[in-house]
Amino acid sequence: MAYKIMDYKGLKLVTFNRLEALGILKHGFSTRLGGFSSKPYDSLNLGVKTEDAATAVRLNTQKLCEAVGVNFEDLVTTDQVHADKIRIVTSADKGKGFIIERDYEGIDALITNASGVPLISYYADCVPLYIVDPVRRVVALAHAGWKGTVMKIGKKTVAQMMAVFNSKVEDIIVVIGPSIGLCCYEVSEAVVAKFNTNFTDVSSFVFPKDEGKYMLDLWTANRLVLEEIGIKDRNIVVSRLCTGCSTEMFFSHRMEGPNTGRMASIIQLS
Ligand SMILES: [Zn+2]
Fold it and tell me: Ligand 1 centroid vs 218 CA: distance in angstroms?
């Protein structure tokens, strides 16, 4: 298995063996277990945009930070608009989101080479990408829902790492975290049409189902996007955890509707 599930005072945190083995960073993906929120946000809801009590979301976020081993006060957040704008984060951004108001917007991916700056981004089915260059010591998080995947945000984030930090594509490792799998993700003709405009061949990740309905494999689509820019097959790790299949473990927008919680990915260079 590509991951482990760690327990911190009842909070269950997913960690990825490949990233842990690098020994240069702290990271994790939250589950819905071990937080303070009540139904339908039970219990580790991290979504500040949900109708959940703000105090509970804050307590949940603080507990998650303790579990991962990063400072809550330093968290750098995104607003995530299902687009492809990327921000290079520096130490000057520490705390932007909870402690200091963000002075940027429309961001779906964060990149930093600064140590001690924890990046966080939010999910309930969309694909979390953890992108790490262990040689140049650069880390990134990218939010790839179907729209971000169509826009190839994974590849664009890697391109930024190469342009700004001189990362070499062969060094880069990507983890595709818990998200909605092929088993649970039915989409319409209109969604497939968008993929057809940006991909030459969708046959490895789009599968016709009933009339006008398709099953979509965002994990494979993201793998193709990453391979397009030259990420090595062996450096792409798919966690294979489907949020739709395990609502006892994860929040799922598709399975539970809009009134559910949000999970988060966190990464920080030590
Ligand atoms: Zn599933």
Answer: 12
Residue 33 CA to ligand 1 centre (angstroms): 19
CA atoms within 13 Å, Cβ hemisphere of 254: 20
3-180+218-269: what CATH class?
Answer: alpha beta
**Residue 30: strand pairing partners:** 13
Amino acid type, 258: P
Residue 184 CA to ligand 1 centre (angstroms): 4
Say how many Å lie between the CA of residue 52 and the centre of ligand 1: 26
Tell me how far apart the alpha carbons of residues 128 and 19 are, in angstroms, rounded to a whole number. 14
Task: Report pLDDT digits (tens) over 185-238.
Answer: 999 999 999 999 999 999 999 999 989 999 999 999 999 999 999 999 999 999
Ligand 1 centre to CA of 217 (Å) is 10
Taking the centre of ligand 1 as the mean of its atom positions, its distance from the CA of residue 232, in whole angstroms, is: 26
Q: Which residues face 180 on adjacent strands?
A: none
Which residues, in sequence order, are CB contacts of 163 under 8 Å at separation 6+? none
Tell me how far the alpha carbon of residue 31 is from its chain's centroid.
13
Round to the nearest angstrom and report the end-to-end CA distance of the chain: 25
Is residue 264 within 8 Å of 68, Cβ to Cβ? no
